[in-house]
Amino acid sequence: MRQADRLLRGGFVVTMDAERTVYEDGYVAIRDGRVVGVGPDRECDFEAADTRRLGEVAVLPGIVNGHTHLSNGISRGLFDELPLADWVDRGMWPTLRANDAETTYHGARVALAENLLNGVTTTVVGEFGSPNHDAMDGVLRAVTESRSRAVVARISVDSADDHDPSQATAPDVRESIEDALAEVSRLRGEYGGPLVEVVPEALGVLRCTPEMVREFTAYARAEGTRMTMHVASSPDERDEALHRFGKGSIERLAELDALGPHLLIAHCVWPDETERRLLAETGTGVSHNPVANLMYASGVAPLAEMIEAGVRIGLGTDGASTNNGQNMWEVMKSAIFLQKSRFGASWGSAELALELATLGGARAIGMDAEIGSLEVGKRADLMVVDLLRPHLVPLGTWPSNLVYSGSPDAVRTVLVDGVPVVEDGRLTMWDQDEVVRGGNSAADLMNTRTGLTDMYRRRSSWTWQR
Ligand SMILES: [Zn+2]
What are the start-end ranges of the H helices in 158-230? Predict the structure, then answer.
């Protein structure tokens, strides 16, 4: 018998390998954080002190959330029904001014908890480190404690070209390229490790100078690291890019030699045919965030066309104040249903949604050699989903039910690098109730600082009586 650290036996094992093999009564053996065996249970020749006999469950690769902002886990619901430009103006800049390591820590903990309970094992995060540098430290402290895998981008803006208010930047949030990259390097040194990668983000082609985009790209290439951006996110951005550059945001990035496998762009709602081809040819990754795009009426992204063009594409939630949840199951369902509304009911499948959320996300961030499927040699990032739930009846159609019922409720166990971060539907690294209480207290503190305490009540149409 071969030795493993941990052995999961029984249940449906969805490998997401090249043949998309599902073992109907399978096993997964894990040693030193990696998958060392996977196959039909009857062929299992491993033993492990920690051996679990699973019942009616499915074992799947962990989900990759390709785009979120963790610290606004505590500003959920404040800015509903605001157009994106107003949200940035009235929500984002004031929040950035009020953030410190304590508030971002609690916000990130809440959002990370939600991600882990959804079966997310890798999170791609974007956070501002300006004007308060320690805001990044709070987020990275929470990410480190969570013991989950993350790519954490430090977002910067430096453009003063504010003639279009929808693309303006607050002067006190702008920073120099040198300061921004010095901070990225500091954070990489302090928090970078096997699970956490800190990378630069130039927010977008309109809120950053071409020099910032070029310098950040050069930094990412020199350091062999990733870079993220928000690109082609809204009709406003599309129109302003055409006005300023005579071309779309992605063509502009091509002109700046910024596209490539190091780059992951979020949203990408408005790529035209040439731009989709550019994305595919350069190996640039995309995070498609359908629920956030719906909330901000940003349009329906051409997911079908991007897949057809061969773009490396995964799925993301966006932050808790622009989605508003971290529910990747809802994202999967919405991604498919939105394209059905364009192409008819026969478009897509639940299996495609699961592929986009796992292997697709891994490809989009260039980590598919390590994660995204359950294959020998890859990292043991996986989730065990209980199939005996009311919303998953009947058992015979469970892949469909998992996605089209759109609920994270059935996620029972989540492993990152073979280590449980969720057991029996509860977090292992934190006291879940304490995370919630800490989040609510930090939200009160933030709202006092920003003057947004009554933000919800002020727009409510109900009569609130004490
Ligand atoms: Zn975003």
Answer: 177-191, 210-223
> According to the model, what pLDDT value does residue 167 have?
82
Residues within 5 Å of ion ligand 1 by Cβ? 318
The yes-or-no verdict on residue 118 having pLDDT over 80 is yes
| Ligand 1 centroid – CA 107 distance (Å) | 15
Does 2-61+373-427 match 63-364 in CATH topology? no
- Concatenating the DSSP letter of every residue in 225-248 gives --EEEEES-SHHHHHHHHHHHSS-
Q: Are 58 and 411 in contact (CB under 8 A)?
A: no
320-352 pLDDT, tens digit each:
989 999 999 999 999 999 999 999 999 999 999
For domain 2-61+373-427, give the CATH number: 2.30.40.10
- Distance of alpha carbon 440 from alpha carbon 321, whole angstroms: 15
Instruction: Give the Å distance between the CA of 318 and the centre of ligand 1.
Output: 5
Boundaries of every domain in the chain: 2-61+373-427, 63-364
Centroid of ligand 1 to alpha carbon of 119 (angstroms): 20
* Alpha-carbon distances of 264 from 11, 62, 200, 224, 312, rounded to whole Å: 34, 19, 11, 14, 9
Residue that the structure tokens 């149409």 belong to: 461
CB 263 within 8 A of CB 295: no
Structure tokens at 404: 């089209």
Contact 70, 111 (CB under 8 A): yes
Tell whether omega for the bond before 131 is within 30 degrees of 0, i.e. cis. yes
Which CATH number applies to 63-364?
Answer: 3.20.20.140
> What's the mean pLDDT in 231-256?
96
Ligand 1 center to 267 CA (angstroms): 8
DSSP 8-state class, residue 379:
B
CA 263 – CA 201 distance, rounded (Å): 9
- List C-alpha distances in Å: 281 to 44, 231, 377: 41, 17, 28
Q: How far is the centre of ligand 1, averaged over its atoms, from the C-alpha of 108 (Å)?
A: 14
pTM of the model: 0.98
CA 123–ligand 1 middle distance (angstroms)? 13
In the structure, what pLDDT confidence band is assigned to residue 370 with cuts at 50, 70 and 90?
very high
The Å distance, Cα 73 to ligand 1 centre, comes to 13
